[in-house]
Amino acid sequence: MPISSKHAGHPAHVSDEEKLAALRVIKRLRDETGVAGREVLAALTACSGQVGLTRRYLRLGAEACADFAWTAEEDRLLLDGADAQAIAALEKRHGQQSVEKRTAFLEQLSNFTSIV
């Protein structure tokens, strides 16, 4: 489950409770894996906030998780939205539903990055 799916698809204010919950997740993953907080945040971002996948990503490495992790380049293509072929390729690689969920996640991400 993503860190926050409460406001999926809606730009929203992040409550203090949600910020605290996100920080607790980052701290727990940092403590479990021995990885720096910024690296945990980067892994959470690559895994669309899904804690279980992020844990796997941190333990096994990016190459071992390439089947589900998103790259900065893919995010750029998705956010730009101008290249229909690129979007189709992302849908083929990740699935249409995952692309839609990723888009919603990226829209919410700016709300959380200001807390770290």
Automatic annotation (TrEMBL):
Gene3D superfamilies named in the record: 1.10.10.2170
Cellular location(s): Nucleus; Chromosome, Telomere
GO molecular function ontology, one term from the record: telomeric DNA binding
Keywords of this entry: Activator, Chromosome, Nucleus, Telomere, Transcription, Transcription regulation
Record domain TRF2-interacting telomeric protein/Rap1 C-terminal: where: 31-107
GO BP annotations listed: protection from non-homologous end joining at telomere; telomere maintenance via telomere lengthening
Pfam families noted in UniProt: Rap1_C (PF11626)
GO cellular component terms given for this protein: shelterin complex
Record has Transcription as a keyword: yes
Main subcellular localisation: nucleus
Function: Involved in the regulation of telomere length, clustering and has a specific role in telomere position effect (TPE).
Family: Belongs to the RAP1 family.
Subunit structure: Homodimer.
Name this protein carries in UniProt: DNA-binding protein RAP1
Species: Syncephalis pseudoplumigaleata
Lineage, opening ranks: Eukaryota, Fungi, Fungi incertae sedis, Zoopagomycota, Zoopagomycotina
